[in-house]
Specification:
mainly alpha, rod-shaped, 1 helix, 58 residues
Length: 58
Amino acid sequence: MALLQAIGLGVVIIVLRVLVPEIWNALEHLALSFLATAGTLADHLQAAVGAMNIPSAL
């Protein structure tokens, strides 16, 4: 029984060593895409607020 657990642990370690770099690359790509979209949204909101014609009460 202990031999099967050791083999299973070895397989898990090997799989994680293979997949972890791909997972980090996907997370990095997701974070960069999110930040780029947030920046674009902020630019559009700033332009929209600047284009608004709000009469002053003074």
